[in-house]
């Protein structure tokens, strides 16, 4: 089963699976031919690959084991020479890496890499934009005192940037214990903590930001719960305010439906979002008047299983469960942020 999918440049995406395999594919613009496998490796620990994070041109990071992350690079640019660049070691009490994000300061003097860990911590790393020698700065404890889930787990399944300048960056995290936390980078100051749904019975599976807009995916239990939430992050006090919530569900008789992954995207009409749920369904929708979640439609794409997905600036959308699926939307009027193949802003 695929756990993570991420674009590592404008033509290639990487898929991490629970069997410890990391596979790189070239997107194929064809209805007759599937994606081409470029490189397949096993992470040294043979643990499930839960995190894939783009760092810089030709460089990305993956989870490895309970005390390390690996960075990879290509010299050729086509990933056929995928090579381990660095092993980032950390205290095993943090737990395996579940999520990550990165950004380069506007003055191009520093790159920051933020990792969300299984035991409810983030770790913050710094390097030059060349990203050849990342150094650990600090870890931050973001655990909820009273987790919303019945198992007391704290996995940070989402780390996403809000915005940044030459002095500070601002990120938000989403955890299986229910916390949404805004954290300042690089000092790790916690600016706000919000329980995404005080009545929740399950935690957060995925988050996505577009500036101060925040989408949250979770597992909904019962007929009154929701599995997609839309919030606004106020930069004046870092409060997180709910604007809308929806239940993405085809069969209303199911006792629960988890939302596995949520991303921002775009199509011919403008900004949109994509999401995948355990019914094997890909959903697409928009935000109306910066206030309301609106569903455009859905499509069954795989067996009843959550699927990882990611969208490239080119409009190419890749989805991985057991199999791989490729879609394409009309590129919008957007530009890349930080040279990232997925991160965009509307122009």
Keywords:
Methylamine Dehydrogenase, Chain H; 0% helix; four-stranded antiparallel sheet; eight-stranded antiparallel sheet; 347 residues; mainly beta
User: Helicity level, as a percent range?
Assistant: under 10%
Supply the CATH class: Mainly Beta
How would you characterize the largest beta sheet? 8 strands, antiparallel
- Poorly predicted runs are none
Question: How many domains?
Answer: 1
Overview of this structure, please?
The protein is built from no helices and 29 strands. With 347 residues, the protein is an all-beta fold. The protein has one domain: 7 Propeller (Methylamine Dehydrogenase, Chain H). The strands form seven sheets. Strands 17, 18, 19, 20, 21, 22, 23 and 24 form an eight-stranded antiparallel beta sheet that branches. A four-stranded antiparallel beta sheet has the order 1-2-3-4, with no helix packed on it. The chain is globular, with a radius of gyration of 19 Å.
């Amino acid at each position: 089963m695929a756990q993570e999918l991420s674009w590592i440049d404008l033509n290639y995406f990487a898929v991490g699976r629970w069997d410890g395999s990391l596979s790189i594919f070239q997107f194929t613009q064809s209805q007759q031919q599937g994606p081409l496998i470029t490189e397949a490796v096993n992470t040294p620990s043979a643990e499930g690959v839960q995190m894939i994070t783009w760092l810089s041109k030709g460089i990305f990071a993956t989870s490895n084991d309970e005390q390390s992350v690996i960075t990879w690079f290509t010299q050729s640019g086509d990933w056929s020479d995928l090579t381990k660049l660095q092993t980032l070691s950390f205290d095993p009490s943090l737990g395996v890496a579940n999520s990550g994000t990165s950004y380069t300061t506007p003055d191009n003097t520093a790159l920051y890499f933020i990792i969300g860990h299984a035991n409810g911590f983030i770790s913050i790393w710094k390097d030059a934009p060349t990203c050849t020698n990342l150094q650990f700065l600090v870890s931050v404890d973001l655990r909820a005192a009273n987790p919303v889930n019945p198992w007391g787990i704290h996995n940070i399944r989402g780390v996403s940037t809000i915005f940044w300048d030459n002095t500070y960056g601002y990120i938000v995290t989403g955890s299986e214990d229910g916390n949404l936390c805004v954290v300042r980078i690089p000092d790790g100051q916690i600016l706000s903590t919000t329980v995404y749904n005080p009545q929740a019975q399950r935690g957060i599976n995925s988050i996505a930001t577009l500036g101060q807009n925040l989408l949250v995916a979770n597992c909904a239990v019962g007929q009154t719960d929701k599995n997609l939430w839309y919030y606004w992050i106020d930069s004046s006090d870092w409060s997180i305010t709910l604007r809308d919530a929806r239940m993405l569900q085809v069969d209303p008789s199911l006792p629960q439906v988890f939302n596995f992954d949520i991303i921002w995207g775009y199509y011919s009409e403008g900004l949109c979002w994509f999401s995948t749920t355990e019914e094997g369904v890909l959903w697409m929708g928009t935000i109306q008047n910066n206030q309301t979640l609106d569903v455009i439609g859905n499509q069954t794409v795989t067996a009843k299983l959550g699927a990882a997905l990611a969208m490239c600036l080119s409009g190419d959308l890749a989805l991985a469960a057991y199999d791989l699926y490729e879609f394409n939307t009309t590129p919008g009027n957007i530009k890349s942020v930080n040279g990232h193949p997925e991160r965009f802003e509307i122009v």
